[in-house]
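INTERNAL AUDIT FORM
Audit reference: QA-55
Scope: verify that the stored structure record matches its stored sequence.
Auditor: D.O.
Record contents follow.
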Amino acid sequence: MPLLFQQISPADEAQAALTKCHLGAISEALPAYFLALRAETDAALSPVLAPAAGKPYPYGRCEEITRDLYNRLVKRLERPAGEVELALKGFIGKGGVFRSVWGVLREQYFQNAIQLGDLYVDVSNDTVVVTKPKVEILPMEASGLVSVRDLAHFRQTAERYWGATIYANHLTPPLAPLLPMISASPGRLRPGLQSACNYMIELMCRDEFREAEDWLRDGPAPPPEIAAAVLAGVPEDLRPRAADGGVETGGGGRLPSGPRRPLPDEPAVAESADHGLSADDGRAGEIGRDRAGAFGLRRLGHHPWLLILRRICFIYGTYMEALLGIVNIDDDLHDQVRGASKVSYRSINAQAAYWIKVGMLCETNPTLSFNDIIKRELSSAGVSAQPLAVIEA
């Protein structure tokens, strides 16, 4: 199964051997190298980042620090200079894992870090206890960093780390399958959709939103004051609608009913009285009624069920476009993507994503062949192909 965004790659024997072979000689130089990069990051971020939870930088800035330093390292490795960078470049070229990772540290904190083979590199070690060393490098197994397993694991960590109370997201139904939790941490974080990160979104998609559905059905609804605080920052188009078509504002208030901003290329659909689907599609209407309660979709008012699925894709697509930019391809290339997807048994989007990733890896690793790159990626995902046996005729 492919790794999720920022998921920890298996620190197996192959990665341990690569780490020892290529990074063993520079193990004593690595902490100083990362401290120097951290100094550059601090110089760039400390003047511009506001205090977190009322405390000055670097408190609470684990994500920002790790992301900035990781990006600096990526740029440096494009033109490596010096013993450490040359060793890192060689390590990666031979299939060593180099990736930004996120998870739960020692069952206490959410933590961003960098994975180098079987090494855990924490370049923001001082963002909770500011007197701790800025950089910590440990074997991944000894670090205590694990991937978030499920929603329950996220909730337990949020309760410990943030002092949060977690509620079911009945406030933004179009986003609920992807972002099913609302958290409130008085005095620490504003009430909101704190699981809005790539990893958690991909985790919800992995089981086709079944875990999200269970939580939305069984989890507690946010109290009026939390609902009002969250909805104050939510666009009207994403809020639940009351029976009269008005938009709920939390705390029992509502805005008058009015026209909804349509999705791009949205077809006109006649709505049935129960807001399932069009009145002439009984089967689809039953599907809408069966699943609407679990996703909080009964409260959507005039959103038809068929458009909910389209809206999930629209919201996620918009989210990814914000991160990656909008990609336009011509009709001929699109036809080739479609044809290749049938041969490889991928979706059209997965085939396009695969070609984009392989192209990026080839461009950023010009000294590696296609086969070397694929072998490295398979190795980082824990796939080890056995050599083929030659059978004499």
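Auditor finding: record pair retrieved intact. The first strand starts at residue 98 and ends at 105.
Action required: none
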